[in-house]
Amino acid sequence: MVLDPKMDTSRGTSSLAQSVLRQTRLLLHEHRLVDCWRAQHPTERDYTYYSALHRRYTRLDYIFLPFQHAHLIRNSTIGTTTWTDHSPVIVTLATALYRSKSLHWRLNETLLADVEVLKGLTDTLEHYFEDNVRPDTPSPLVWEAHKAVARGYLIAQGARLKRARTRQFEELHARITTLEQTHKAHLLDATYTELMKHKAELHTLLNISALQKIRRTKQRYFEHGNKCGRLLAHSLRRQRNASYISKIRAGAQAPSSLPQDIMTLFHKHFQETYNLPKQTGTQNADTIDAYLRQHLRITLSSDARQSLDKPITGEELEEAIKLTPSGKSP
Fold it and tell me: Which segments carry the region annotation Disordered (predicted)?
């Protein structure tokens, strides 16, 4: 929805009725909500969405803030359209509650997939052991110190690749921003074609960062999924809310909403459903056996059964680990 068609569309018109727009603005006024970007740019024109079909720019994305907190706004901008077809609205707020957190280094697994980085790491460790393995140097000390050497090399390579990607991102972002502003002003097809080309290059670059974040999210769920903590508490809270039963009806009776009545009805239902006679476990054994003999056409040989019953050997486990992709567990 466009709140002000004259300022928030490239054509100055809207398909919505004026009564709908007026009612929406009145609703925002009643709730004392402030459009952050428009509050800081009352006379400027900028847009967050482009319709290639209608060749029209509109500002459809907003960030609203209660009026009593509007003094916290320090800066508000409309970014460049990169990942999706909408431009991001960026608002910077000043607050005394923010505290920066100390970061812990984690290995970027994508470095191990880089052949040049892996070769450099191998050469670095070979030189390290050649220079430091001495008869008078304790082996545990040499082993522990080599971890710091490997970590330092990987940090340096990660920083180098990050600088290269950041420089490439900034160049593409600046080019896209310039082309986007030009297209907003003139709506030329050639400009739009070049703009889409640079956006495709930027998507390819951003996919690297997205894959890394997905991998870290999977790692976080793997490490903390079955441990008592914030992640488990959040999952249990959602599960409890999803399984909430406000009331229940049994047959033609009146609905029951008290917890003890609901529990009694469930207990009675499952008791009647699963409280079967004791003889039912064996009376159909012949029928089940005949059914299985008729439909199970493929069976394991005696050698295959013996092979499956054998314990897993260390060689088999080592081979499974080698064949496992990076980031997975065997």
Answer: 307-330
Q: Which two tokens stand for residue 181?
A: 């502003």
| Same-domain status, 28 and 75 | yes
Q: Is residue 180 part of a domain?
A: yes
DSSP annotation string for 241-262: HHT----B--TTSPPB-SHHHH
Q: What would the pLDDT profile of 289-302 be if each residue is shown by its tens digit?
A: 888 888 888 888 88
Where a domain ends, among 58, 93, 128? 93
Mean pLDDT of 204-222: 85
**Beta partners for 92?**
75
Cβ atoms within 10 A of the Cβ of 166, count?
Answer: 11
- Is the same domain home to 117 and 205? yes
Is residue 239's pLDDT more than 70?
A: yes
* Mean pLDDT, rounded, for 212-222: 84
CA–CA dist 253, 265 (Å, integer): 11
Same-domain check for residues 70 and 118: no
Range of the domain at 163: 109-224
Which residues are paired to 51 by β-bridges?
56
Dump the DSSP string for 219-240.
HHHHHHTTSSSHHHHHHHHHHH
Closest by CA to 77, choosing from 98, 48, 34, 43, is 48
Tokens 């009694």 locate to 264
Distance CA 189, CA 55 (A): 10
* Residue 245 located in a structural domain: no
- The mean pLDDT of the chain is 87
Do residues 127 and 218 share a domain?
Answer: yes
The span from the CA of 253 to the CA of 261, in Å, is 12
Contacts (Cβ under 8 Å, ≥6 apart) of 278: none
CB 17 within 8 Å of CB 1: no
Distance, in Å, from the CA atom of 238 to the CA atom of 240, rounded to the nearest integer, reads: 5
CB 61 within 8 A of CB 48: yes
Averaged over 1-24, what is the pLDDT? 89
Which of 93, 23, 35 shows the shortest CA–CA distance to 60?
35
